[in-house]
């Protein structure tokens, strides 16, 4: 078994946290920026701004959220799925890989809805 695994960590994650951990501050900056954009849209609605201008801002937020989502999917694949594959190789239990791949597939499905 991988000695780097935390006892209470989900299978396929290492003692270093989740795949996004190294980029956590960058993700938080992006999310704070998105949060500010959402507050800006609320202000635009309160101030009765032109609907097309509001929709333009909504589109910008959607694009920013998609970028965060894709980054998290990439991090999950390169960290959690790879970690699960390493664990499966060490233990011979391939179900952990199947679970992580299914998690990724389910998450991608939710993003595409």
Automatic annotation (TrEMBL):
InterPro entries reported for this sequence: Metal_Tscrpt_repr, Metal_Tscrpt_repr_sf
Domain of life: Bacteria
UniProt KW Transmembrane keyword: no
CDD domains: CsoR-like_DUF156 (cd10148)
Pfam assignment, any one: Trns_repr_metal
Any single GO BP term: negative regulation of DNA-templated transcription
Record's keyword terms, sorted: Copper
GO MF terms, alphabetically ordered: DNA binding; metal ion binding
The keyword Cytoplasm appears for this protein: no
Region (Disordered): 1-20
Family according to the record: Belongs to the CsoR family.
Protein name: Copper-sensing transcriptional repressor CsoR
